[in-house]
Amino acid sequence: QVQLVESGGGLVQAGGSLRLSCVAPGRTLVTYSMGWFRQAPGKEREFVAHISRSNDRTSYADSVKGRFTISRGNAKTSVYLLMNRLTVEDTAVYYCAARLGMAITTVPRDWAYWGQGTQVTVSS
User: Fold this and answer.
1) Helix, strand or coil for residue 31?
2) Per-residue confidence band for 50, with pLDDT thresholds at 50, 70 and 90
């Protein structure tokens, strides 16, 4: 079992930035592919970003490409999501996820471990 803990959410004005963090207490994340998903009220959970284990290949949803960046911490015990030029449409609960497979997947059911989520609210 992998426990994931997200932090860094909050309220920000449109055009602003936030950096979300995800850690697994007492565990390295280097052997896992890591992902960020989000879920807005009344909507399904959707893929945001992915970073593969082994080669750190990244992938992004079209809606965030060029604005968001997923990365691993130097000690490989954390994963970050840097979000720039935020818009009202980015408002959602953001979830960190982990899986052992290396292939990029945007499907939530392919991910084995999930955090509790952190709220991001973007005001106009």
Assistant:
1) coil
2) very high
